[in-house]
Amino acid sequence: MKRSLLIVNADDYAMNEIMSASIRAAFSEGLISSSSCFATSTIFQEEIRKAFEAGIKTFGVHLDLSFGKPVSTAV
């Protein structure tokens, strides 16, 4: 198994359809090794489904306080 010394992250997966498609393409071309996503995006569920279908199984979380809809009730 080849050990990677550098992680190249693409931020903002699921921000919009174009961003998500570009990040999936970058994964498939081997240009990036990591991505973080907007769980508050209105297209989050659909874009994560597309990522899984493309073989991308893990994401970091983009911590966000001002974009999209809340993922939980007010605290």
| Quaternary state of the chains | single chain
Query: What's the β-strand tally?
Result: 3
Strand order of the largest sheet: 1-2-3
Shape: globular
The amount of beta strand, in percent, is 5-15%
Number of helices: 2
The average pLDDT is 87
**Number of domains in the coordinates?**
1
- Secondary-structure element sequence? EHEHE
Helix content percent band = 25-40%
Could you tell me the radius of gyration in angstroms?
Answer: 13 Å
Poorly predicted runs are none
Largest sheet: 3 strands, parallel
Distance between the ends: 44 Å
Structural class: alpha/beta
How would you explain this protein's 3D organization?
With 75 residues, the chain is of the alpha/beta class. It has one domain (9-61). The protein is 29% helix and 15% strand. α1 links the parallel β1 (9-13) and β2. The longest helix has 12 residues, at 17-28.
Helix-strand blueprint:
Elements: E1 9-13, H1 17-28, E2 34-37, H2 44-53, E3 60-61
Parallel strand pairs: 1-2, 2-3
Briefly characterize the structure:
By secondary structure, this protein is α/β, with parallel strands linked by helices. The chain has 2 helices and 3 strands, in the order E-H-E-H-E. Helix content is 29%, strand content 15%.
Key terms for this structure?
75 residues, alpha/beta, 3-stranded parallel β-sheet, 2 helices, 3 strands, 29% helix, globular
